[in-house]
Amino acid sequence: MLAVGLTGGIGSGKSAVADLLVERGAVLIDADQVARQVVEPGGPAYQPLIDRFGPGIVAADGTIDRQALAAVAFADEESRLALNAITHPAIGIAMIEARDALADTDAIVILAIPLLTAAHRETVRLHKVVVVDCPTDVALERLVTQRGFDRADAEARIRSQISREERVEEADYVLDNSGDRDALAREVATLWDWLLAAAAERRAHA
Question: Do 125 and 99 contact (CB within 8 A), yes or no?
Fold first, then answer.
């Protein structure tokens, strides 16, 4: 197995790249999807969130009301840190378990992690890190025109993230997604060849 961390700033097109890699045969473990699973009833973060933020975050059907949770969890820095302290370990454990289940296969496993840091290389045991990159103005226009963000909100979200330069520093491979969909398909084709070569090299040294 080749474990590949995939990251990129908001609006960079990380999800589009992940989808194209899956089409080529990669296995996707998506942190955003795992984040939703761990807060479901019975999930490892469900009861701790209620204990910390109160029954007001529970919807009528018993699930966590994500908007209600966000309203209280992002009200101040202490609450935000408490949210992360509850959810991040649960997400990490679930992703590691999903990765380990594929350890004995020849799969190219893509772990999509929005806030990927240097620490993830060790904690999630990543062999390679791919960063999807595009100019900030391109990302901003995508958020506004394609995803319906208010421009001020989109600008604030981009500002709150680490810089492009910091993100790219962690990369083994930088994929340029500043062009259109056809250009992205070509970039992903080149990336896939690179990943196949990396997987073959890993098997040769196993």
Answer: yes
